[in-house]
Design a protein that fits this description.
mainly alpha; two-stranded antiparallel sheet; 15 helices; SalK; HTH_67
Length: about 280
């Protein structure tokens, strides 16, 4: 696929956001407030702006996870720590992680540009992005930067879910077609999403029966479905770029790419990873 500006922007800023999933500071913060296990911290931390929510809507919004995996974390997480506490400590922890990984860095301009992009987002049928957009803006530059990347990331992710559902795929089937593109691997994804081997095989058989997969990977029909999903995802993520304009997007890339490379090179985000994010 020809690179799309919306995809290029995602590639540039995703490592700045994804630190929250791989750096030790957020996991330690979740444990300190009483959350039990890494995955409880993940589900509670990502869903915290939605309030004390249960597993069914989170499974729906997060889309690619086996329901039982979410049910092991929610709503029990809220008996250990309130959403407000989880959110506050998560922001503090990811700020500490970025401070460690980036060292002395001036990010005020980048944070301001990304906040300008966030202001242009529409949140129709985008519950995760809408919830994160309602989080009060911190005063500290690195915290501002990370929160802006969180809103933009969930805005794009919500749009991706809409695109996949419109193409007739379940969360697991979307994951399987993503793996078939070579963007990530089964070993990075299956355990992290909680699906059994039987469920994986059943979903694969369904895609084969529909003519979207074969022994060699994506069929031409499957590649077309995947292309449609990705192009729709990029189209639905275009509003922030329109607000920045070409010069603003170029400036974001100029500022963000060196920071994201520093994070990856410093071990803050592994390559490969379940998201399929690459070193920009």
């Amino acid at each position: 696929m020809k690179p799309n500006p919306a995809r290029t922007l995602w590639t540039a800023i995703e490592p700045l956001h994804a630190v929250v999933y791989f750096a030790p500071e957020p996991a330690a913060a979740a444990k300190e407030v009483g959350l039990r296990g890494w995955w409880m911290g993940y589900f509670a931390g990502r869903a915290a702006p939605l309030g004390p929510i249960g597993p069914e809507p989170v499974t729906s919004m997060f889309f690619g996870f086996a329901p039982r995996m979410v049910e092991r974390a929610l709503p029990d997480a809220w008996t250990f720590a309130s959403p407000d506490v989880v959110l506050r400590t998560r922001l503090e922890a990811v700020e500490a992680a970025l401070t460690r990984l980036l060292g002395p860095s001036t990010v005020d301009e980048l944070a301001t540009l990304l906040e300008q992009a966030v202001a242009a987002c529409r949140f129709d049928a985008r519950p995760l992005a809408a919830a994160w957009s309602a989080v009060p803006r911190p005063d500290r530059p690195l915290a501002r930067l990370w929160l802006a990347t969180a809103v933009l990331r969930e805005h794009r992710g919500d749009g991706h879910v809409l695109a996949a559902v419109a193409s007739g795929l379940t969360g697991l089937e979307t994951t399987l077609t993503h793996i078939a593109t070579g963007a990530t691997g089964r070993e990075q994804v299956q355990r992290a999403r909680g699906w059994t081997g039987e469920e994986w095989s059943e979903a694969t058989a369904n895609l084969v029966e529909r003519g979207l997969l074969d022994a060699g990977g994506l069929t031409p029909a499957g590649a077309e479905v995947r292309r449609t999903i990705e192009e729709t995802t990029d189209r639905l993520a275009a509003a922030p770029l329109d607000a920045l304009g070409p010069a603003g997007v170029d400036r974001v890339l100029e500022l963000a790419v060196p920071l994201s490379r520093r994070i990856i090179d410093g071990g803050g985000v592994p390559i490969p990873n379940p998201m399929g994010a690459k070193r920009p």
